[in-house]
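I'd like us to work through together how a protein chain folds, taking it slowly. To get us started, please write out a protein record for me. Label the sequence line and the structure token line clearly, so we can match residues to local backbone shapes. Once you have written the record down, we can walk along the chain together.
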Amino acid sequence: MRGSLAAALLLASLAPARAAAQDFDTIPKLPGAAASPADSAEDYLRQQAEARIRVPAMPSLASEGPLPAASRLLFTRDSIDWSGAATVGDLLARVPGVHLWRGGGIGRPEPAEFRGRGGASAEYYLDGMPYLAVGPDSVTVDPALLPLGLLDHVEIERWPGVLRVYLFTRRHDRLAAASHLVLGAGPEKFAMYRATLERRFTSGFGFGAGADYVKAPAAGGTGATGEYQNTQYWIQGSYVPSARFGLQVQYLGATPDRDAFTGLGGAGERHEGRRGDLQARLFVGGRPDGTGPRFDVVYARTAFDSAGIDQAISQMGGAASVRSATWSARAAAFHRTRWTPLDASVTASWSPAAVLTLAAEGVYRRHDGDRNARWLGLRAGLGLPGGLYLSGAARTGEDVAAPSLASSPVQEIAEAEGTVGWKLPWIEVEAGYARTKSFAPPAFQPYPAIVAIAPSGRSDWLTLSGRLAPVGWFSVRGWYADPRNGTPQGSPPRHYLAAAAIRSKFLRRFPSGAFDIKLELGIEGWEAGVLGQDAGGLPVVLPAARHVRSLVQVQLESFSVFWESRNLGNEPNGFVPGLRVPRYNGFFGIRWGFSD
């Protein structure tokens, strides 16, 4: 605000002199001549004006209807930058009951285990299309390999027995160009570089590009071996002349190279190759406010090549949707050239009043080997006076845990969860109780020494979560999860995560709000449990552990300095037996955003 006022006063003071120069100097300015202060002020004001002008952008392909409270978590780009997260797995760790199978430090595998589902715990979607597991591991997507730095936001949708992780690439909707730069480093010559650039024009054309590079050497002093590096890049071109029509083509590439690593009496699997995800999409219909009918046509192709593996999977299909201020409906059908010839779904949601929300979803998938998955899910939520709310979710039907494995059978699913919560500006408390049917989960391929995860049996799950902010600059958040009958394999019992943070803009000293600081100290721990079974059928015991991490971040306007550090207490037991998280593992660096 003060910068805009100063520029305006500068322009006003220079206006008479500039007019006089135009009256007497009829010789045009030579190319390459130095810009005058008035020209700089004009450019600044133009950039500020363009930053406030919205232009049509591609609407989301994922369902955007209303959902009851406690149905999903949203991480915007700003909240991701202030969370200290290095990977998508770090965001999943915010979900009560999730245990990441971290293979050590940053760059190691970290598949998510949720309520005894093993490799079927999470489904991933990139801009609304399934993000498929391909290459050396065609069963489970490793969230450590996902391009967190190239994403605009992440949504995690919760069902009683599965998580849906929606990844959205950057979606620039301003006339002014936007760019971001991140430079990071860490112990043992850890390196992180990231840059993005986006531009839109009044004609409807636009482009985006970005690159993300991470290198994490083997951590010294822990007995670990194996380096990791990954270069990911994103290119996008679009033509969206109005809110009723648009097309977009984008490509996301990656070259992960993770060496084999030690632990559990053997070596973890090497992951190396080139992955590319191409997506082309056309939409017709809709209104500027997002309501109205719309039709989308999509073609996507995923390819992986390396280590003797050459896979290519195409997806093609479309979705028809309609949305109003209080309800939405969507029907979609897609054909895949590998493992799942047909993937069809119907969703609907309705919020007839501010206190009531209803939602339903039906899914039918035809997999290779004459295996069919079909299930129905229902949700309901009720808002009560005083910030209280009730919500429930249930699924029933049949599912296939690992369509890429011919030996993965069709399994019955019957699960339900009830949640009660209380939310006010200074306090938020939520308690959930879920019941899941017996399930035989697939094991995680990056850990060959854990050959199987035993079927869970019928299980009950208790989760508690909350946030307390007694004053504006201090807050405490956390969650606790525990199976109530038996101890299913895959995650430890009595698992907890908590963090206390001081965050202040010091508005009394910096009224503009340009200065921001955050100091956070977090802890995650659990009691001893069993992750799975080894080749001899013996249980692989996960010892009790307690990990402490810290985050320091200071921001001045669009420039910030950050420092994130893990395992401050030098905990010897890791998230997977034998794979210790190095002490002070983490990173520090700078982040800078531009609008020009």
Q: What stands out?
A: The chain is about 10% helix and 50% strand. Residues 2-51 form one domain. The chain has two domains: 2-51, 72-595.
